[in-house]
């Protein structure tokens, strides 16, 4: 299993892992398409997508192209806590080549504003 993690990653970027059984160009395409799908999911109370907010902690692509995602919420009591994992599963499930999606909710480590991208900070006027 390989992980794409570097010191120069933006705060909101999750750990991206893929099984070494897939060709690198396929991993890159799937990763780009999965990130694009994640960017279509918004918390209804926040005008920024969940990827830019830094709510996605890990994306792992297995040899069979099953995608596992670890994510969090801005707060454990978020009103859409029961629905958002399904939204993520549905969005990523539409990516061509993805055989299935598992979304794992975690609050460890807890989310904080330092995980937001500059794009999210601009959208939320949080400088």
Give the key terms.
alpha/beta; disordered N terminus; 4 helices; 127 residues
Order of helices and strands: EEHHEEHEH
Tally of helical segments: 4
Q: Give helix % range.
A: 25-40%
Give the neighbour order of strands across the main sheet.
1-2-3-4-5
Number of strands: 5
> How many strands, which pairing sense, and closed or not: the largest β-sheet?
5 strands, mixed
Structural class: alpha/beta
Instruction: Give the overall shape.
Output: globular
**Strand content range:** 15-25%
Q: Which assembly state applies to the chains in this document? A: single chain
Query: How far is the N terminus from the C terminus?
Result: 37 Å
Question: C-alpha Rg, in Å?
Answer: 14 Å
Low-confidence stretches: 1-8
Mean pLDDT: 87
Please give the structural blueprint.
Elements: E1 2-4, E2 15-18, H1 24-38, H2 50-53, E3 56-61, E4 66-71, H3 84-93, E5 100-105, H4 118-124
Parallel strand pairs: 2-3, 4-5
Antiparallel strand pairs: 1-2, 3-4
Give your account of this protein's structure.
The structure is a single chain. 27% of the residues are buried. The protein is globular. β4, α3 and β5 form a beta-alpha-beta unit. It has a five-stranded mixed sheet with strand order 1-2-3-4-5. It has four helices and five strands, in the order ββααββαβα. It has helices at 24-38, 50-53, 84-93, 118-124; strands spanning 2-4, 15-18, 56-61, 66-71, 100-105. 28% of the residues lie in helices and 20% in strands. By secondary structure, the protein is of the alpha/beta class.
């Amino acid at each position: 299993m390989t992980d794409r993690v570097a010191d120069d990653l933006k705060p909101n970027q999750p750990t991206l892992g893929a099984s070494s059984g897939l060709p690198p160009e396929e991993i890159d395409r799937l990763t780009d398409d999965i990130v694009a799908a994640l960017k279509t999911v918004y918390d209804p109370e926040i005008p920024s997508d969940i990827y830019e907010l830094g709510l996605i902690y890990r994306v792992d692509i297995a040899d069979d192209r099953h995608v596992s995602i670890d994510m969090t919420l801005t707060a454990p009591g978020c009103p859409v806590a029961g629905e958002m994992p399904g939204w993520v599963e549905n969005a990523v499930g539409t990516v061509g080549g993805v055989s299935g999606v598992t979304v794992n909710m975690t609050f460890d480590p807890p989310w904080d504003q330092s995980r937001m991208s500059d794009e999210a900070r601009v959208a939320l006027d949080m400088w």
